[in-house]
């Protein structure tokens, strides 16, 4: 579809420091991403700017330096640690005579390599097509020409319009197939809710050790490696605890400035995080950028509307630190808030199980509601969650409802109702509405 250079495995990296803190990226992380993609870096161009150049992103002088390094090293791809516009990519490719990729395209390529299931492949293709659709406009001038020649003359549709239409049709087709997958996942979630088995989801920065911890807890053999985005497709296993059992979900890792196309495409996968009763936020405590990574994960959780779900911080890889022993830290209310362990060395796993059991036991909301007839639409929401334990009506036509559901689901419903549901809570001791 595109008249572009073929990408190879020999790369020149470009990293620019900007004065704006929100625009900064990490060069070490770019090198890890390139390594995870299977490429080999043969040179690095660095610099600093106040703002990107409109034509080359890096300025004409730095662009000439980049082209010279590409020629000297015989590199066949240039990878920027930033987001480029279609015009910037085109201008740089013409100057360097090789393929130019930005940070988003690199991450999409890694995801395409990691996808194993049918659902994962569909999600990656959807993200790629959405990203590609922004590259049609002003990206390649030949796409603006009409088709010509005998047998090629059509109703006047330009090549650009044809490609746009083909992309829209394919995106629509993939969305329909993903909707079916989403419904299947929703049915599985309802079955787990009916069995009163809480869901605990592993979240964290990529390469924090989530899959290694998942395998250690569940005796599974999920693929785990010292590379970014080793896990892409979500995996669920039953985890036996002293006081019962939970469903443990291993999910894709987060990264700073995670492309919005990926967040949108992986809606069904991220749903496992949004619907969890408890989040285990796995943190690489041996990473120098630990605090920045934690902040990035919290930002993504807020973006997918999962920031209000209870979290337990799991400080992993203590075997890489000196004089740090497995332990549980408690907050002022006596609840576990941090667990220090090493998944690879199997240290502190029993402490994590103890902390999960403590928190999950409190992560269920059991309420009695007096819902007036005019607010009867809330009944459907509780039915969909299979949360209704008992239902009856009083003399005034109010529905007296006993519900039992995940605390996260209750907070989500209360938020969606803008607090109205909380005004229906009844104190069973006095038979009076709380609010």
How can the largest sheet be summarized?
7 strands, mixed
Give me the strand/helix succession.
EHEHEHEHHHEHEEHHEHEEEHEHEEHEE
Q: Mean of the pLDDT scores?
A: 80
* Biggest sheet strand line-up: 6-7-5-8-9-11-10
Q: Roughly what percent helix?
A: 25-40%
- Terminal CA distance: 61 Å
> Helix tally?
13
Rg, nearest Å: 26 Å
Q: Which band does the percent of strand residues land in? A: 15-25%
Structural class designation: alpha/beta
The shape, in one word, is globular
User: What quaternary form is this?
Assistant: single chain
Number of strands: 16
Question: How would you characterize the overall build of this protein?
Answer:
The protein has 435 residues and is α/β, with parallel strands linked by helices. The protein has 13 helices and 16 strands. The protein has helices spanning 27-36, 60-73, 86-96, 103-114, 118-133, 159-194, 210-218, 260-265, 267-274, 290-303, 349-360, 377-384, 407-416; strands at 10-18, 40-49, 77-80, 99-101, 199-204, 235-241, 244-250, 278-284, 311-316, 327-330, 336-340, 364-371, 388-393, 399-406, 426-427, 432-433. It has a seven-stranded mixed beta sheet with strand order 6-7-5-8-9-11-10, with helices on both faces. Strands 2-1-3-4 form a four-stranded parallel beta sheet, sandwiched between helices. A hairpin with a 5-residue loop joins strand 13 (388-393) and strand 14. Helix 4 (103-114) packs antiparallel against helix 5. The N and C termini lie far apart (61 Å). The model is unreliable at 138-149 (pLDDT under 50).
């Amino acid at each position: 579809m595109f008249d572009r250079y073929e990408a190879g495995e020999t790369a020149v990296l470009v990293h620019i420091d900007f004065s704006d803190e929100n625009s900064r990226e990490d060069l070490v992380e770019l090198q890890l991403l390139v390594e995870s993609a299977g490429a080999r870096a043969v040179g690095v161009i660095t610099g600093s700017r106040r703002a990107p150049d409109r034509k080359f992103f890096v300025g004409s002088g730095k662009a000439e330096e980049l082209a010279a390094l590409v020629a000297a090293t015989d590199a066949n791809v240039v990878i920027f640690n930033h987001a480029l516009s279609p015009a910037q990519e085109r201008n740089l490719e013409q100057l360097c005579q090789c393929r130019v990729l930005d940070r988003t395209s690199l991450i999409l390529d890694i995801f395409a390599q990691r996808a194993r299931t049918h659902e994962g492949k569909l999600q990656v293709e959807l993200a790629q097509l959405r990203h590609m659709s922004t590259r049609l406009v002003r990206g390649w001038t030949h796409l603006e020409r009409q088709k010509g020649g005998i047998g090629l003359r059509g109703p006047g549709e330009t090549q650009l319009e044809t490609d746009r239409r083909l992309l829209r049709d394919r995106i629509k087709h993939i969305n329909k197939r993903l909707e079916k997958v989403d419904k299947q996942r929703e049915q599985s979630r309802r079955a787990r809710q009916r069995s009163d088995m809480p869901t605990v989801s592993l979240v964290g920065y990529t390469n924090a050790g989530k899959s290694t911890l998942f395998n250690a807890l569940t005796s599974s053999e999920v693929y785990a490696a010292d590379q970014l985005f080793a896990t892409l497709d979500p995996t669920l296993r039953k985890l036996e605890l002293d006081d019962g059992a939970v469903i443990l979900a291993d999910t894709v890792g987060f990264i700073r400035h995670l492309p919005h196309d990926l967040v949108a495409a992986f809606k069904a996968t991220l749903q496992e995080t949004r619907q969890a009763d408890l989040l285990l936020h796995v943190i690489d405590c041996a990473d120098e950028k630990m605090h920045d990574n934690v902040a990035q994960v919290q930002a993504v959780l807020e973006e997918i509307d999962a920031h209000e779900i209870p979290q337990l911080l799991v400080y992993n890889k203590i075997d890489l630190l000196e004089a740090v022993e497995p332990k549980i830290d408690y907050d002022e209310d006596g609840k576990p808030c941090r667990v220090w362990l090493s998944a690879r060395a199997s240290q502190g796993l029993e402490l994590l199980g103890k902390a999960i059991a403590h928190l999950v036991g409190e992560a269920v909301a059991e309420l009695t509601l007096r819902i007036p007839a005019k607010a009867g639409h809330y009944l459907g929401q509780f039915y969909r969650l299979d949360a209704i334990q008992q239902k009856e009506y009083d003399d005034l036509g109010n529905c007296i409802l006993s519900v039992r559901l995940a605390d996260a689901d209750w907070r989500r419903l209360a938020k969606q109702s803008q607090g109205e549901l909380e005004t229906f809570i009844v104190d069973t001791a006095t038979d009076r509405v709380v609010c």
